[in-house]
From TrEMBL:
Predominant cellular place of this UniProt entry's protein: membrane
Location in the cell: Membrane
Topology in the lipid bilayer: Single-pass membrane protein
Source species: Luteitalea pratensis
Pfam families linked: Band_7
InterPro entries (alphabetical): Band_7, Band_7/SPFH_dom_sf
SUPFAM superfamilies: Band 7/SPFH domain
Protein name as catalogued: HflK protein
Keywords recorded for this protein, A-Z: Membrane, Transmembrane, Transmembrane helix
Residue ranges of the TM segments: 12-34, 40-63
GO cellular component: membrane
Amino acid sequence: MIRERERQVMNGAVVLAAGVAGLFATVAWFIYAIKTRQPAHAVGIVLLLVASLVALAGLFTVAPNQARVLQLFGAYVGTVRTPGLRWANPLYTKHKVSTRVRNFESAKLKVNDIDGNPIEIAAVAVWRVVDTAEAVFEVDDYNNYVHVQSESALRNLATSYAYDGHDDQESLRGSTGKIAEHLKQEIQERLSKAGVEVMEARISHLAYAPEIAAAMLQRQQAGAIIAARQRIVEGAVGMVEMALDMLSAKKVVELDNERRAQMVSNLLVVLCGERGTQPVVNAGTIYQ
């Protein structure tokens, strides 16, 4: 495996000044040789011209958050990360690699969750190149590699969890923080060989597939209704128990078991009913 080696090269401004000065000197020398009719200077003029052109040919620029991978006849020489005008051997090939932070948003993938329910899922990954040598030499096209492996990791993640969890079970919809961390680790494991660091990964789209969306919506609504009813009943039972205890403690009224059962029934109807109850005034005694 090829690892990045940072290489220090010459400041290009100095070489640029020397190369331009060499070109002016070549022109001046050529004019002088013509005026003095001294053909012996031709060799020196040619050598100076070639040296100036070689010096200028080795110049290249490095932008901020960018690197240049240097190769000599196919062999890796090093990576230049220092921004500005630089100079290196003109025989080096200089491959430009961006080290900026980039986003990748996957397409909406249709997969089955761990319960076998078809869902649609998409994710956003924030990444950057941290090892230019691995990015250039270990994979054919690191941009395409990031896209393919990110979608593969997302598919694998979706099949490991349920869309909705039950009894505190981790799920795609309910455990967003843990799911995001798992997705980040899953993508990072696949991209580490390409010299890429995954900074963040999160699900950007999550929904049931259209063919089961309506049925799943009904199930979610039923679950919400049952949960709400359960809370209402628990609260109503507590209120009834408190009312009976207070009546007994303050001796407001003495009730036998039958009347206590009737009062409990009436209170539960009032407290648990979906609509407001209509009171009935008893003009007689409670036993009529």
